[in-house]
Amino acid sequence: MSELLAQVRRWPWGFAAVVAIALLVANVIARASFATPSSWPSTLADFAPFAIAAMATTPAVLSGGGSVDISIGPLLNLVSIIIVGVLIPHGLGSFWVAVPIALATGAVVGFVNGVLVAVFRYQAVLSTLCALFVLTGIGLAVLSQPASGTTGWLSDLGNSVGPIPGGLILILIPVAVWIALGRTSFLRSLYCVGGDDVASYSAGANVTGVRIVAFTLGGLFAGIAGIAYAAATQSADAGQATQYTLPAIAAVAIGGTSLLGGRGSLLGAIAGAAIMFLIQTLLDSLNVSSNWVQLIYGAILLFAIVLSSVLARPGRPTLAAAEGPVA
Amino acid sequence: MMNADEVTAVSAASTGAQPTAGPLLKVVGVSKSFGATRALRSCSFELWPGEVHAVVGENGSGKSTLVKILSGVHRPDGGEIMLAGQPAPDRPSPRAAQRTGIVTVFQEVLVVGPRSVVENVWLGVDGMFRLQVQPAEKRRRAREALGDLLGSAPSLDVPAEALSLSDQQACCIARALVRSPRVLILDESTSALDVATRDRLFAIVRRLCAEGTAVIFISHRMDEIAELADRVTVLRSGESVATLPRREATTDVLVRHMTGHAHLTEGVEKVPRAARVRGQVLLRTEDVRLRPGGRPVQFELHAGEMVGLAGLEGHGQDAFLQALRGAGACTGRVLSTDGVALSSPDRAKTAGVAYVPRDRRAESLFSVLSIAENFAVPTLRADRRAGLVDWGHAARRLGDYAERLRIRLAHPRQPITVLSGGNQQKVILARWLAAAPRVLLLNDPTRGVDLGAKRDLYRLLEQLTGEGVGVVMLSTEVDEHVELMDRVLVFREGSVSAELAREQLDRASLIAAFFGGPDGSEESDHV
Q1: Any B CB within 8 A of A204 CB
Q2: Per residue in B350-365, pLDDT tens?
Q3: Structural domain that includes position A90
Q4: CB of A185 less than 8 A from some CB of B
Q5: Predicted ipTM?
Q6: Which residues, 6+ apart, have CB-to-CB distance to B99 below 8 Å?
């Protein structure tokens, strides 16, 4: 048992990955066409915005100190509004204009959130809740009616770029950024600061800077998620601003990332998002009322929370541990 | 960053020209206040290259504040800190201090639990994105430093939380060592170490000193100071009162400097008083051990007795007081007169035990409520009229105590926050006296309370013991023990190391007992 626990602690997202694979198999059994290669692009395009939203939520959570960014949902929705509702109708929908604007919007909003939390020490839940309302409001002001539209590169991303599904490419971009950051000292600093900010500060780490970069990175990923959403739906709707907010946080938690910070990974976010997405598709295939989806999400989340709280306090001394050899 | 580089360059140049140009670190008249508390009044000392300089002082003498200023956590209010002739950085931070070569190992074990040993050793060294030291180099030097400290290095890849506390602290020390400090501050860092590791640390410290590093060594262990320190600076009430070479720094002399000759709370004398009648036993302990494997604390509290709990911070006195109020995390039992085990705070309350917590703001005050509400909360039953609370009655009840305790209050319906700290504490005390306790447990009740209010409290306690209440009071003020207590239990390393009766009580003997006593009886435990 403790052996298993040690393994789960070592690979916090392993559990989520196993469940996700099991659900994938279940989906294929329930509906054989799920495995047909021709269906992959559209499935991945549907999955991409949610998976990237979960990845966008991850860095701030990892940075610890109660950090969480609940404005990721409205931010990605605003980005999709800018692309579909503003840039494309004004003839500015070309790749080299729209993508930099989308990414810059995300990064700037993330940076502002990071400064509010790390420098001004506002509680992250509250300050990003303000951001959630402000971003939702801006979206409604810019686009009062739902709009639709797409352009060459965007519809490719919503389908396939050559032989590769566009959704897959979009999902792999944050992963690539993450791997690149792993070659710098940033990710280590992020995990250390999230694991124990007092120890990190007293050892000379730049706690404030690391948290700002974490939020900025989350905002940047939200920009990518906005592109993915625009690509998948070919539309923008200001009324949909908060649809990903809570599921994204749930996906992060289900993926084994501790909301206390310092433990977890980007892959966990993908696995957590995959679980939630695959449950939805499975229930669709089985013609189960989608009313049950929320209930099942809740049960899985509860389980994930229990698991992560067990993982978050491994050092709790027990008499047995004090007497036995240190594992 | 410029600043730090300049410092390094200048010092290198100056040491090159004149190897013994002056002190490495010069602290002149440094002061620091937190709100109304003056943690450090005026601290001055010089640290020379190659010396181990011990800093000693009793609780609250300002040692931790000094360490936090030197290591960049706090900015001093006044005074001057010169490192190799250069002033300290304008915007202090631990990172800035480390850049100038001042590296601190804190008393707390500061590791990031989920991260690996090697990451913990190199914590905070790298820039945000740029690695300052290559991974292979990191592993090599971490292995080397930990090997020196632990005899054999643990696996570098296990998470720090899997290590023993002693090994975790070794990681913190290794973290300081790999930075090649010019000034190494060890702030009670030995308390979490096992004996063998401590001995290896001392060997490393001697080697570093031979290479010109200066070490500030803070410890409550006189044997460690005698073993390692070249000079000793004594802090008392935030002032540096003496710096002595090792041969002069005997425990006796240090204790005399730590206690001083003048009483700090002037005007309160140890009053001769009529011998108290020791009544029946109100509380007694049964095999209470504060730490696993520790010696049990044998204790009986009699009616009409006032007992002090003393010792250096964190040596078990607080845990013992918690045990007496039924909230202890220790083994054994505390029994009341009737033989009821006080297994929870609720049981203790029913058995007539009242507890006044230490942290007024966090543990006892309802800062949004009125004075009368704060007073009446646990005894509201007395104010019920037909199921509703009659606040006028509560206010009248408070009036009785206000007179007795000399609480200065304008109106009982005012918020409690309009009162001074001393008067707030009196209201809290009145709250528990209204429950007519047989045993009153006080956790440092006069902390942050003005002198006048202190005297009122003292008088009240005298009065209560006269009425047959048993009082147990933890105090961090030595004078309070000397002036008030019938006897004092001195805690050290989780058990009672000395019990001093009223006629044995004076500042010197009490503080000597904190540090293990001049008779050396305590040291035998560690050999």
Answers
A1: yes
A2: 889 999 988 777 788 8
A3: 2-321
A4: yes
A5: 0.86
A6: B1, B4, B89
